[in-house]
Amino acid sequence: MAASDLPPLDDTEAARLRADFPILETRIGDAQLVYLDSGATSQKPECVWEAEQHFYETANAAVHRGAHTLAVEATDRFEDARAAVAGFVGAGERDIVWTANATEALNLIAYSFLNASLGAGGPEAQPFRLGPGDEIVATGMEHHANLIPWQELAARTGATFRWIPLTPDARLDLEAAATIVNAKTRILAFTHVSNVLGTVNDPAPLVALAQSVGAFTVLDACQSAPHLPLNLRGLDVDFAAFSGHKMLGPTGIGALYGRAELLDAMPPFLYGGSMITTVSMEKAEYLPAPPRFEAGTQKIAQAVGLAAAVGYLSEVGMDRVQAWEETLGERMLTGLASIPGVRILGPAADSGVRRTGTVPFEVQGVHPHDVGQFLDSRGVAVRVGHHCAEPLHRFLGVTASTRASAYLYNTTSDVDALLQAVADVRGFFGVK
């Protein structure tokens, strides 16, 4: 039965899925673990680490470097994994470059543009060259990984860095964006889903703005690839980045999506073996993408594990995952908003803004680190801090927040455990 033919996810089905994640049976003291920190890293079903183990047991060898049986088998599994992940995000196989994580993927783009700006690449690299008078635009809700590389690229090329501000209720100000993105804009980088707020941004108006001035678009898909049906070619972005560990996959594996014709024209970022066609003592010639950007020994077992993860998600069905998370997120939003002394950060529960199952909040009078430790004593795992989005927290008027983030293996009872624990925080610390 296809995932589209299955009934919506509910508590019974989520509990069945939960059995595929042995770590969720962990107890924290006397309490059963309630894992609500999937926005930071998701847990892994057995099939993912079994796929990695099976690779090491049956096909471990270097890829693209040998003609013996194990090398051929390893290469086949490595490239099959690329095809699986590409299909999952609506991309072609040549559009996907393996990276260690999304941070590396975003830096890869920035450093390739920097190398082009320093003169690397032939005439085909001209579109990527930046200098004084050019502008790079991000937004006020970016994770540091989609902010700092662009600040640095601007500083090193003489380009100007600008950003799209937020409205008072922490949405992207699209009216301001229409004036900030202009004929000088060369790159527009933005998040699909805020890692702090869980709000889902519509890429269409931003892509249209960028295309109207000939700018490249860079999408941070770290919080959308795990939680929403994703079609990167359909979104018409030029580049995107996502991480395996947030979407049931292993750590140490992520991907850069780029339109193949762009990747082929970009100068490499890392140099060495496996990314060249010919080498002399005077110069080297480079392969087309994706190996153009995959120097050295690759993340082979991790890629195999990520392919198992996207297979698991596809079997469940991303439409079902999205709908279930929205149900859990709404329950968190309305429940937290009803607790005295708790302030939801970002758009309110009745704002009509689309969100994933991620909710940041402030318990007034109690530091988020203390909130997190108290919740942990009740077995509830959440994230505390500025979540690598310090400018956004400054805009929200806080230095840090508590963030609960659900996934397909969470149930309404998990949300209720969070709500009960948060309701007890202020009393425990004697705050009135």
Question: What does it look like?
Answer:
With 432 residues, the chain is α/β, with parallel strands linked by helices. The chain folds into 2 domains: 3-44 and 317-428, Aspartate Aminotransferase, domain 1 (Alpha-Beta Complex); 50-314, Type I PLP-dependent aspartate aminotransferase-like (Major domain) (Aspartate Aminotransferase, domain 2), CATH 3.40.640. 38% of the residues lie in helices and 16% in strands. The protein has 14 helices and 17 strands. It has helices spanning 11-18, 46-58, 69-88, 102-117, 148-157, 174-180, 203-213, 232-235, 260-265, 300-316, 318-337, 368-377, 390-396, 412-428; strands at residues 27-28, 31-32, 34-35, 96-99, 135-139, 160-164, 185-191, 216-220, 239-243, 254-258, 276-279, 284-286, 342-344, 358-363, 380-381, 383-385, 401-405. The strands form 5 sheets. A 7-stranded mixed β-sheet has the order 4-10-9-8-7-5-6, sandwiched between helices. The chain has a 4-stranded antiparallel β-sheet with strand order 13-14-17-16, with helices on one face. A two-stranded antiparallel sheet has the order 1-2. Strand 11 and strand 12 form a beta hairpin. It starts with 10 loop residues before the first helix and ends with a helix. This is Cysteine desulfurase.
